[in-house]
């Protein structure tokens, strides 16, 4: 009876998990083996036909390539710039508090609003960026309708929004490193550069791993900026995986095929995340 009482405290959380995570996941798995069209009630079992179609489709690998490209650059730039800002602003003063607040503020702004702001900034006719280019004597660029630049604008939007959060987490990691390590290394003649590579980077590795995995999963699921700014264009050059799932399910109404794509994408994220955790066993150093 006492054990059931303890279990009852976890019951509300378990109910939410079952209703909003496990049930949709297993239902998607079931639908992935059907040819269900959302406009019709009939669900005909088609086996692995949806998976075969996707895995032999050029679009699948092109979308996967776009998603990986976006993710790699987004994670690399967000963590790199976030660490640099953390090193610069890791100081206790009112001035630095204000600077950190300004940099962190975009984290609280909705991605839809951020996307609309950047649509104006990178507008091909009257955008702020092109006005700056004109002042420098450079020809205007059609940022969001050019296959060479559209994806980079989306990456810039994500970095601008996420770098403040990364900076704050890195600052917390930096302040958790005992000062004694730096003092002892200074006595031994270590330079600031040596301290950075031999003390700061290794002891920040748990924080870095957390940020890498969370940013990786978030970037792989990019949707809102694509939906608002480019609709997957131009010429499908920004069609990321989640946007393709949305398009297939709610525009083409191929719900069975979209569910198969969800399952494949879920497996890919799980595999890549597991690889990162496996590699981190030798690369991540905990103080204890």
From TrEMBL:
| Main localization category | membrane
**Family label:** Belongs to the binding-protein-dependent transport system permease family.
User: Superkingdom of the source?
Assistant: Bacteria
Which ranges carry the ABC transmembrane type-1 domain? 64-276
Listed A to Z, the keywords are: Cell membrane, Membrane, Transmembrane, Transmembrane helix, Transport
> What membrane topology term does the record carry?
Multi-pass membrane protein
**Which PANTHER family does the UniProt entry name for this protein?**
ABC TRANSPORTER PERMEASE PROTEIN, INNER MEMBRANE ABC TRANSPORTER PERMEASE PROTEIN YCJO
Q: Which residues cross the membrane?
A: 7-26, 68-89, 101-122, 150-174, 195-217, 258-279
| Keyword Cell membrane found | yes
Q: Is the keyword Transport in the record?
A: yes
The subcellular localization recorded is:
Cell membrane
Which region is the signal sequence? none
| Matches recorded under Pfam families | BPD_transp_1 (PF00528)
Please give the PROSITE patterns that the UniProt record associates with this protein. ABC_TM1 (PS50928)
Protein name per Swiss-Prot or TrEMBL: Sugar ABC transporter permease
Q: Which Gene3D superfamilies match?
A: MetI-like (1.10.3720.10)
